[in-house]
Description:
The complex is a heterodimer. Chain A has helices spanning about 15-30, 35-45, 45-60, 70-85, 90-115, 120-140, 150-155, 165-180, 185-195, 195-200, 205-230, 240-250, 265-285, 285-319, and strands at about 145, 155-160, 160, 235. Chain A is an all-alpha fold. Chain A has a domain at about 45-240. In chain A, strands 1-4 form a two-stranded antiparallel ribbon. By secondary structure, chain B is α/β, with parallel strands linked by helices. Chain B has helices spanning about 45-55, 75-80, 100-105, 120-135, 150-160, 180-195, 205-210, 235-245; strands at about 5-15, 20-30, 35-40, 60-65, 70, 85, 110, 115, 165-170, 200, 215-220, 225-230. In chain B, a hairpin with a 5-residue loop joins β7 (about 110) and β8. Chain B is globular and about 60 Å long.
Amino acid sequence: MSKIDLSGLQKYTIMFVLLALMVLFSFTSPYFLTVRNITNIITQNTYFIIVAVGLSFVMIGGGIDLSVGYQMSLVGVVTAMMMVVYHQPVWLAVGVGLLLGTTLGLINGIIVTSIRIFPLIATLATSVIFQGISYLISQAQTYRLYPQEFLFLVKGSVLGMPFDVFLTLLIVILASFIYSETVFGLRVMALGGNEEAARLAGINTRRLKISLYTICGFLVAVATMIMIAKADTTNSSFGPGTEFIALTAAIVGGVSFMGGEGSVPALVAGVFVLAVLGNGMQLAGWGTYAQYIVRGVILLAAVAFDEYQKNLRLIKRKS
Amino acid sequence: MTAEYIVEMKGICKRFGGIQALKNVDLELRRGEIMGIVGDNGAGKSTLMKILSGAYLADEGEIYVEGRRVHIRNPEDASRLGIVMIYQDLALFNNLDVAKNIFIGREFSKGPLGLLLDKKRMYRRAEELIQELRVDIRSPKFGVSQMSGGQRQMVACARAIAFQSKILIMDEPTAALGVTEAGKLLSLIRSLRDRGLSILLITQRIPDVLAIADRVFVLKGGQRQDVLEVSKVTLDDVVTMIVKGKDRAGEKAPVVEYQSFG
């Protein structure tokens, strides 16, 4: 009897999980599957998706960036102060914010490749540095009352959808295209798959790694703009914690913690799995604290599953 | 520098901290020959070849390729000179398919500034290479992670010849293979030589060298001992040279029950 090959379905696992969760929560709460609730889930997660996409470049390239939360904190207060305290035009404030985010990513890349310590430790250290700078600059103050032009990010619409949703969609499509259709995307996969082999194949791995952290920094800055516009306020505590959600979503979405694997659509599904879980639990009356526990367990399970799959492939090859 | 040799390495020295890995080593590779590089563990075989392939920098010495003095500072420099090394651990990407493994680092590109992958051309050329080499690989879209050791070696060979490399360095290519797969690979190496490639074959399996090489280069303790014509030596001669070196090679040879050296 011939066997049915189900290996192709593996990459859709996360989509099935998302679907199953939606079905489950539609039974636990009548409000879950309403247009309003689904729209909320999408619009509340645009900046998480953008951060996760940024992080995916670093992670697929074999690295990690734990500083994205405090990058957001620093970029957020600087952009807000430019608009609210120094009354600079919106385009300049946003430009400075994006440039700052890109520079923070560049600094991470240079540190990781120059000192050659684990990126986990390096970015944990820079995270604390960014935190310090953010609080030093903001003096722990809160900034609000942004100009209306800035709020276009979340209140404006393009092609019948909120501008931030449109922007997120654009970034997701562009990132998918980069991974699957460009020389750069292939080299990122190669770098994460086998860094030494990539070097021996003539790829400038140092320059490539730095560019990945820089792209991540830029996308994190874009996400920050949406985050502070959505809240219509910011202070230095806005941003931290995002790294955990983005990291969990990336791994749940199949981005390997070891590098070399991942796809953007699955990553987006990963973000929505966490979002749907949070939303569904909220509607079921579970509260915020229980969600922390569930998220932690999910991260552990996803990393364990990633490791298990790696070992399984190794055993298959040896047999 | 004579045109007879495609590669000449002269007075190569390399130290790692307090250890002198290579001491004043000269090597000459003829055009279109297979030269075995043999020696005990730590003799300096891989170090010498890594210098030629750009993975290591020599502390002293000169390298000539086709009679021209060259400076090989990295694998890219070596690649531009037509030198490719297939490493013992194969340096393949388990997360990529056959075609991508063959062309990574030198991808076919298209579009503005050559930013886009020319996948169609890449897969077509990979398919042609698989057919040319008559290797046992079903499709260029096949994942390398699911392949046997022999198939992976063949992907590495296809990668080496994809860009008209002139000099191919292979590090212990048959070490992890069974008898059948090793036999297939040795045939492939011969066919690569027949296509005009000059091949340097690092190995501890002396019978492999005697089966396909034209000459054997013997290293001991980081120093060149001798270069032997395969047609004029026996297995014992080579093993004696490896064990005792040039100065003591005239002494009575050890009794060797030979299966695999090392």
